[in-house]
Amino acid sequence: GFVPFLVSATAGTTVYGAFDPLLAVADICKKYKIWMHVDAAWGGGLLMSRKHKWKLSGVERANSVTWNPHKMMGVPLQCSALLVREEGLMQSCNQMHASYLFQQDKHYDLSYDTGDKALQCGRHVDVFKLWLMWRAKGTTGFEAHIDKCLELAEYLYNIIKNRAGYEMVFDGKPQHTNVCFWYVPPSLRVLDNNEEKMSRLSK
């Protein structure tokens, strides 16, 4: 009997590196007028790659997106972003109008003050780190970095998928850089695939 108001899709899950079908999720959210959030903290960097950005198709239809350039893109910790479609939303949700913090007699455009727009009020402006790194590496530099990481993940997957003593956690090529596998010691290789084997393997 509950009425959902938000769908949180993931672009690059923490363990498997999996991507939700964002276009299909966006269609459902549009149909039922539900807020669509995309957790692209890990996978958002793939937008910098012409080869891999298709995995985030539909993210442009989201109402909000989280993104951590300090993960896939290697920007120094911490560099996190919460992006919202509706202009002024963060300010209307978070502003406290604390006059002792945000004086109005500034010599610059007050819209640049971030304190009344963020949950943390006095947090650092993380985007400056991203901007500096972008100036240094350029878009092509980020793209080469990301493409190489995914190329190495595919290489690792191809090396171990049929190697004795290794079992992939799931069938199929990884969607991101996460290559999930078990190393099975010789003593367990002779056992049937059952609960006892998995229990011993987990230990």
Describe the model.
The chain contains five helices and six strands. The mean pLDDT is 90. The chain has a single domain (6-202), classed as Aspartate Aminotransferase, domain 2 (3-Layer(aba) Sandwich). It has a four-stranded mixed β-sheet, with helices on one face. A two-stranded antiparallel sheet has the order 5-6. The longest helix has 34 residues, at 127-160. It is of the alpha/beta class and 203 residues long. It is elongated, with a radius of gyration of 22 Å.
Which characteristics define this entry?
Pyridoxal-P_BS; Aspartate Aminotransferase, domain 2; alpha/beta; 4-stranded mixed sheet; 12% strand; 203 residues
Summarize the structure.
The protein is of the alpha/beta class and 203 residues long. It has five helices and six strands; from the N terminus they run βαβββααββαα.
Largest sheet: 4 strands, mixed
**Which residues sit in consecutive blocks of at least 5 with pLDDT less than 50?**
none
Order of helices and strands: EHEEEHHEEHH
CATH superfamily: Type I PLP-dependent aspartate aminotransferase-like (Major domain)
Please state the oligomeric state of the protein chains shown: single chain
How far the N terminus sits from the C terminus, by CA atoms, comes to 42 Å
**What is the approximate shape?**
elongated
Number of helices: 5
Helix residue percentage = 25-40%
Looking at CATH, which topology would you report? Aspartate Aminotransferase, domain 2
What structural category characterises the helix and strand content?
alpha/beta
Rg calc: 22 Å
Number of strands: 6
